[in-house]
Structures are given as C-alpha cells and as structure tokens.
Amino acid sequence: MSRFPAVARPCRPGLSIRAVAVTAMLLAPLAGCSSKPRPPADGRSADAIRGAVAGMRGQGAAASAPSAPWVDLLADSTLSGWHNYSTQGAPVVGWTLSNGELVRSGRGGDLTTNRTYTNFELELEWQVGPGGNSGVIYRIDHSGERSYITGPEMQILDDAVHADGKNPLTSAGANYALHAAPRGVVKPAGQWNSARLLVRGNHVEHWLNGVKVVEYELGSADWEERRRNSKFANAAQYGRASSGHIALQDHGDRVLFRNVRIRELP
Questions:
Q1: Which domain holds residue 219?
Q2: Per the structure, how many domains does the chain have?
C-alpha cells in the first residue's frame, strides 16, 4: 500500500468526458478477469500443446540437419559393396569396373547395393549402346523375383532406337510406366547422360542432364491411380518400402556408368 494519500488527477485538457467513459467501459472486463489461464479453445491441455510445439521444433531440426558427405559407390574396383540381385553374398559377375567406368559385360543380373537407403541423393552418368536399355531401381526389398517388382525405376534408354522410346511413359528419365518424361532431354546412344535421383520420404525427383523431368509423391492418390493402370497393378509390394537397396539394371544390353555417388539425407 502506498504511504501517500491518493490524489485525484484532473483529466488531461482536451480529453472529453465521453471518451473517458468509453475507455472505462472497455477496461472494466479486464479488471475483473481471474489470473487463472483459460483452457485452449480446441480443448487440448497445455501439456498437449507444449508437446505438439516440441514435436514441430524437432521436425524443423531434422529438416535443417546437414546431409551426410558424398560417397563414391565405385571406389572399390572389386565391387565389394555390390551384389547381383539374385545372388546375395556371392562375388559380382557380369559387371566390370575399369578406369572408373562400370560396364555391363555379361550375364549376371542387376547390380545391387549391399546397403539399404531411405532418404538420399544419387548422382551418376550413364551411356548406352544403340538400342540400349537399363535403369536405376530404388527402395528394393528383395521380396520379388525381380528388382523392379518392388522398386520404382528411373528409365535408362536409347530413345531413338528402342521401341520403349516411342512412349514417353517408358522413355529415358521416366518413372517407368507411371510418369512420362519430356522429349528432347536425353542424349543419343554413345554419349554420356548425367542423372540425379532425389528421394526424401515420399517425394521423388528425376533429373536428366540438368533438367527435372519427373516429380511425384509415392503413395499419393495420383500415384496409386497410375500404378493401378500400369503393369504393376498386381504387384502388391511395388513402391511400398520406405527403405531399400538400389540397383543398376541388367537388361541384356551394353550400358556404362561412371561417377556414381550418393549422399544420405536427413
């Protein structure tokens, strides 16, 4: 309590009695408010809201976390980090690595990473011979007889000669049979093409020669409709895995790869 008696102060000159009255009416409800906090309008407890906020902060921290360093997938000339799809644990056959170039040199099956990957960015260069066909297949779970039964594929193709090149859904750069690639991006047989595959959660991007040719969301309504209308309609596990192996497809044709590197994303 103040030691000095309250002294009534005159209103400021120019302030009308009506303005003072209106101000008093507006402040009156605040004076009678309890200091007890009101519950949230949506009925959640304060603890629940604090937990939700903490969760959002955690997601933000994960999204801003730095990516892992790039890893050269062809650093070992013996291809010890790979296996043929149908023969896990056995030495690689049908693929030869020399002077930094990986060549499909004979029958052996899809060259598949020993490691599995969830979120990642894969970069490589590829070259096919006339009429050549191959692909990069990802999130393979090894439950299918073939790698493409479970893993979506970024198509590798000589569009000018191979029959699949007549259909944008199966042309170079396409998400094979589901998402078409634009024309005029791929280089002809005998020339090197640069490819980039970005996979983060359900979001996927295909880049070819510096151009984003395909973008899609795994499991989305659009993706499901496209799958049902494709050759994968009866493949129950196709595109379902959240993590899996990556394969370079052996389609029986001559194909070369170089500068194959990957970095894992948060």
A1: 71-264
A2: 2
Shared domain for 76 and 53, answered yes or no, is no
- Examine residue 234 and state whether it is found in any structural domain, yes or no: yes
Give the 3-state secondary structure of the chain.
CCCCCCCCCCCCCCCCHHHHHHHHHHHHHHHCCCCCCCCCCCCCCHHHHHHHHHHHHHHHHHHCCCCCCCEECCCCCCCCCEEECCCCCCCCCCEEEECCEEEECCCCCCEEECCCECCEEEEEEEEECCCCEEEEEEEECCCCCCHHHCCCEEEEECCCCCHHHHCHHHCCCCECCCECCCCCCCCCCCCCEEEEEEEECCEEEEEECCEEEEEEECCCHHHHHHHHCCCCCCCCCCCCCCCEEEEECCCCCCEEEEEEEEEECC
pTM of the complete model: 0.76
In a domain, 41, yes or no: yes
**Residue 5 is assigned to a structural domain of this protein:** no
pLDDT tens digit sequence for 123-175 = 999 999 999 999 999 999 999 899 999 999 999 999 999 999 999 999 999 99
